[in-house]
Amino acid sequence: MAGRRVAVVLAGCGVFDGSEIHEASAALVHLSRAGAEVKIFAPNIEQMHVIDHLKGCPSEEKRNVLVESARLARGNIQDLAELKVGEFDAVIFPGGFGVAKNLCSWAVKGKDCSVNELVKSTLEAFHSAKKPIGLCCISPVLAAKIFPGCEVTVGHSKNVDGRFPDADTAAAIEELGCKHISKDVHEAHVDSANKIVTTCAFMCKAPLHEIFDGVGAMVSEVLKLA
């Protein structure tokens, strides 16, 4: 697995309007442990809005997705427009509402959303090159919109024991003509035909270490396919 070149694409910084910080960190830790060579990217666009994470409500300020993502990347980040698929073996998108607000409009329009053109072309390029794509939390909806018939998981399709409050996302994915595979938080699903690996992460109400392990399962499967 060592030496695999992996692009990680962020959507801001903070669960309610950007990338989910624990998911992004978990992915980076697991990639580091596996000896992967990682570069981090984000689109240079304005966020849909900014959420005050203490109050849980929108604020009036404006923020840029690339600038905010740089916080998570410790400043070592590039504009997504600069990503060259030929230089990488795989791509991973952590979750967070930023995916559903900034990378696409799922948060507002659900299955009728549009995907940012640069995000779409990036995913299509990896898919065309038969290079693996790793997606966690809400990020699998990107694949569901772009690759009809693909298989993904966002957890369970029913709200089992109250642990999967966003189970209706699974139904929306099915309505897009994709197959939703129910998996628990520590598991990842591999769509071998499309080389798409998904895990539910914070779509499940679970302890942080279980989410960390699930992201690890996703990273491990991505690296096996790379």
Automatic annotation (TrEMBL):
Tell me the superkingdom of the source: Eukaryota
NCBIfam families from the entry? PRK11780.1
Tell me the PANTHER family matching this sequence. ES1 PROTEIN HOMOLOG, MITOCHONDRIAL, GLUTAMINE AMIDOTRANSFERASE LIKE CLASS 1 DOMAIN CONTAINING 3A-LIKE1-RELATED
Recorded protein name is DJ-1/PfpI domain-containing protein
